[in-house]
Amino acid sequence: MTDSHAEIVICGAGIAGIATAYFLAVKAKVQNVVLLERDTPLAMTSDKSTECYRNWWGGIDNAMVGLMNRSIDWLEVIAKETDNQIHLNRRGYLYATSDPNQIPKMRQAAEIAEKNGAGKRRIHDSSESNYTPASAHGFADGLDGTDLILEPEIIRTHFPELNDNVIAVLHARRCGWFSAQQLGMYLLEQAKAHGVRYIRGEVTGVDVLENAVQGVQVTRDAQTFTLATSKFVNAAGPLQNQIANMLGLELPIINERHAKLYFNDHLGVIPRNAPMLINLDEAYLPWADDEREVLESDESTRWLLGSFGSGAHCRPEGGDSSKNVLMLCNYHTQATEPTFPIVHDPEAPEIALRAMSLLVPGLKRYFEHTPKPVMDGGYYTKTPENRPLIGELAVKGAYIIGAMGGFGLMAACGAGELLSAHITKASLPDYARAFLPSRYEDPEYQRLLETWGDVGQL
Ligand SMILES: Cc1cc2nc3c(=O)[nH]c(=O)nc-3n(C[C@H](O)[C@H](O)[C@H](O)COP(=O)(O)OP(=O)(O)OC[C@H]3O[C@@H](n4cnc5c(N)ncnc54)[C@H](O)[C@@H]3O)c2cc1C
Description:
- Helix 1 (15-27) runs parallel beside helix 5, helix 1 (15-27) crosses helix 9 (408-424) and helix 2 (63-81) packs across helix 9 (408-424).
- The chain folds into two domains: 4-51 and 180-252 and 383-450, 3-Layer(bba) Sandwich (FAD/NAD(P)-binding domain), CATH 3.50.50; 93-176 and 255-382, D-Amino Acid Oxidase, subunit A, domain 2 (D-Amino Acid Oxidase, Chain A, domain 2, 2-Layer Sandwich), CATH 3.30.9.10.
- By secondary structure, it is of the alpha/beta class.
- It has helices at 15-27, 63-81, 102-115, 152-158, 180-193, 240-246, 289-297, 348-357, 408-424, 443-450, and strands at 4-5, 8-11, 33-37, 52-54, 93-97, 121-124, 146-149, 168-172, 175-177, 197-200, 202-209, 212-220, 223-228, 232-234, 254-264, 276-279, 313-316, 324-328, 374-382, 389-392, 398-402.
- Strand 12 and strand 13 (223-228) form a beta hairpin.
- The longest helix is centred in the first third of the chain and has 19 residues, at 63-81.
- The strands form four sheets. Strands 6-7-8-5-16-17-18-15-19 form a nine-stranded mixed β-sheet, with helices on both faces. Strands 10-3-2-14-21-20 form a six-stranded mixed β-sheet, sandwiched between helices. Strands 1-13-12-11 form a four-stranded mixed β-sheet, with no helix packed on it.
- Helix content is 26%, strand content 23%.
- The chain is globular and about 65 Å long.
């Protein structure tokens, strides 16, 4: 294999690497971009997601909302130019609670999100109030901001599937889902059509001289060759620290294992036009008394009686004739070394189903005979404050796009555009600074991290 030269080499054809290639080649017109992938495009994490998006982010400033609004703008542009081949909808995220203590927090969250640019908040606390439901398809007539519904009658009318104990729901509106695979393949095809060379091969080394990138070593079929380049992008998803180590760097990231349950809701418990349903309350799984006794008696099963945290969520999946539902209950939030294939807990489907049944009691009908579930999942690769890394690293010419936790699909277009702007030295948006890898060198930022609070993970 002959050695060759590339203007920019991107390691990893997940959504982050593909979006970067797209914005460099298609939008910034950069020639001679190489996209390297050791396996199949999108197949490590990017095809394992719930495919949802939201501009609903809290935080200390408007950076996350800014990035997401920009990214969603791109999703809408792509949806329009492809006749909505990416199946973008705008059904919203519906956060629900039965706990009166949550209501002030919901009010405050809606206020902060409005201040950060997520759109206006509307409070519905009387049955006269004019709440507009989301349409099931498309995104053109969508509202933004939030509807905080405190009037039980409105909740029961529009969301009859929810538990009668729900006293408040917050409907975040510039949110929904889309086909991540279609998006990824569209961006990849466009990138290739604009000259990006896609090469199957594994990055096994990066040549650095005087703290500057000189080339990338690629191994394929037991042969190694070098691509000479002065610009290298680390988009290796959960394996980003392996690549950083090749540059002599260590990234402030961890990986968490997250599983997703996919099952046939043949009883039609989740309405096909439902938004994303999210339980804000802490989940203690419902068990019958005799089950509880058995679980209690054995040390290896006692954990099933403990807390599974808040945030269990589900949504309908597929077209009008589909009965499929996606469900997540994220309880593996400790850092772990990424290994493949990922082995999921055998209990994960039952945990997700029982946790979700607290918000949607109709799901209890599946406790006796759960339809055979399909499990998949991947890693959330995260920084301490759950904000991405986008920009140049401490080695000249080495860049990163990643650590996108549970939001990499929704952020991909905004993040790819941003990294392309860094590399081509184009003008940067206000939110660029918040995602620079160098932010951790600032002692002030380190102090801020200690009091960060909610990291907005779902
Ligand atoms: C269960 C679950 C649900 C999620 N739900 C959502 C959601 O609803 N919305 C959302 O926006 N996000 C969601 N996410 C997050 C999203 O999937 C990720 O943030 C995103 O896919 C990360 O993309 P990536 O390109 O950084 O990484 P990856 O998709 O993992 O891509 C990295 C690529 O780099 C390649 N690579 C690694 N090392 C090398 C090497 N040495 N040489 C060559 N190639 C290499 C890998 O093979 C891989 O293809 C979810 C994630 C999970 C696990």
